[in-house]
Amino acid sequence: MDLHSIKALFLDMDGVLWHGKNPIGDLPSIFHKFQKIGIIPLFGTNNSTRTPEAYRDYLAKMGVEINSDQVITPAVGAAYLFQRDFSINARIHVFGSNALKEYLQKAGFSLVDENADIVLVSLDKEMTYQKVAVAMKLINEGAAFYATNLDNVLASENGWIPGGGVMVNAVQTCTGVSPIVIGKPNTIMANIACEKTGLHPSEILAVGDRYDTDILGGIRAGCRTALVLSGVDSKSSIACYAEQPDLICQDLNTIADQLLTERSQ
């Protein structure tokens, strides 16, 4: 794959940048290589349990300095989508994390527990029967049903844990309504990356460790794609898919070195 046209990266985080609290490779050195050749890094994750500011601070602890507006979470995608399709006056019920609620409130939305225009379901580590019942009632009353993502499991330091898809499935099962999904493999977050950089999708390399979210989302958005083997998927696990990533690399440092080599030629 010719990487000369690539001007920005749309990077997944877990499995690409770190496993839990452990960085994958020498991240300061890797991002110095990107900076050296003028590659713009943006970050996209389906995990909405942290705000963009929290991700910025987490990366800073690993020696990588970025701005919070380089981080695109489902909360960022939700605010973008709701402002476009509803209005800033839309009333939103959030079945999800405090970080998700905080971002939407800062974006100017009102969060409610009744008379909602939108129900947004995401990972909630304090999931209860009552929370499912409230979401069900509001959707049955006519609220639009949105989900941050459909990931049923998440990687953690202690192995796999339930993901936001568990909450979404509970609400979908009892309402019979399918949600509009904001996170990858939907293209909303990649579209935001294009708007932020002013680049054509083909000038952005979407990098991830999961085919069904990161790579498929990049393909659908028209980005170039690179699967890293430092996380969930392997060459054998994606062999069944008709559309393959443009690159399959061991890790992010391999991509950085390839970009550096091509730009020096």
Automatic annotation (TrEMBL):
GO terms for molecular function: metal ion binding; phosphatase activity. GO terms for cellular component: cytoplasm. It comes from the Bacteria. Mg(2+) binds at D12, D14, D209. InterPro entries: HAD-like_sf (IPR036412), HAD-SF_hydro_IIA (IPR006357), HAD_sf (IPR023214). Its cofactor is Mg(2+). The active site is at D12, D14. SUPFAM superfamilies: HAD-like. Substrate binds at K184. The keyword Magnesium applies. Keywords: Magnesium, Metal-binding. Pfam families: Hydrolase_6, Hydrolase_like. Divalent metal ions. Mg(2+) is the most effective. Belongs to the HAD-like hydrolase superfamily. NCBIfam families: HAD-SF-IIA (TIGR01460). This is Ribonucleotide monophosphatase NagD, HAD superfamily. It comes from Flexilinea flocculi.
